Amino acid sequence: MYDPAQLSALSAVIRLGAFDAAAHTLGVTPSAISQRIKALEDRIGTTLIQRGTPCTATPTGARLARHFDDLTILETALAADIGQTAAPARLRVAVNADSLATWFLPAIADHPMLFDLLIDDQDHSADWLRKGEVSAAITGEAGPVQGCDSFPLGALTYRATASPSFVLQHFPNGVTAEALATAPALTFNAKDALQNRWVEMMVGKRVPLNTHLVPSSSAFVDASLLGMGWGMNPAALVDGLIAEGKLIDLSPERPLLTPLHWQVNRLVAKPLAGLTVSIRTAAKQTV
User: Domain check: are 77 and 160 in the same one?
Assistant: First the structure.
């Protein structure tokens, strides 16, 4: 058995990134936090926190912190089963930015728990589960990560969009490999492969893109409207703008579909069954 106070201190430091912030949240002194972390590290026999600004977890520290969060979920469910009240549980979830910007928040809003949402590309979010740093994730992988249950959510529809003036300037003869090689593109971050996937689908080969990096779903739409570049936007965010003529769909007959799945650690799958239902229902209405 691990000391709950020590695990709580570890989880708080990792979540907040600082010993002082963890102490304030838990109502103890920074010295007490430091002593609890040190005692836990001595017991485990390895470093759990990389001290710095911010403090970050080692792989073992992240796994122990998730263990504490999972136990809290189970204990909160147990308290409800026996008619007791408990502090809200905390769930750490990896989710892609476009799901967060379109359908994910309404799915979780009515559930009485605290959420730590980590943003990552759907093609990489399952790695957080493998490392033991989250208890659930929205991922592009269909096969369940070891120790998890996987639920299909449908496919998020993306449309290649640009402003009318941008299309007139850069695609006067349609979408060609030559035009794509010079027209500025929009990319969410280095992990974002959607634009490259669409280009290969359209012209049958990879084309090096000149691209802006715009790490925000809403700013991605704004950049498209402002004529900064073309990019893959979720249909839920741009269908209205396309209907109004403010954006043009570069391939209305060939949207890009990105399958999504909800993966949840089996240890907490049962107490999170209601959340899973809400997520699958909300996704079905949008994805």
Answer: no
> Which residues 6+ apart lie within 8 Å of 271 measured at CB?
73, 74, 76, 77, 89
Low-confidence residues in the chain, pLDDT < 70: none
- Assign residue 243 the CATH number of its domain: 3.40.190.10
**Number of structural domains found in the chain:** 2
Stated pTM of the model: 0.89
Residue showing tokens 């096969």: 143
Residue-range definition of the domain harbouring residue 59:
1-82
How far is it, in rounded angstroms, from Cα 95 to Cα 165? 34
Q: How many CB atoms lie within 10 A of CB 148?
A: 23
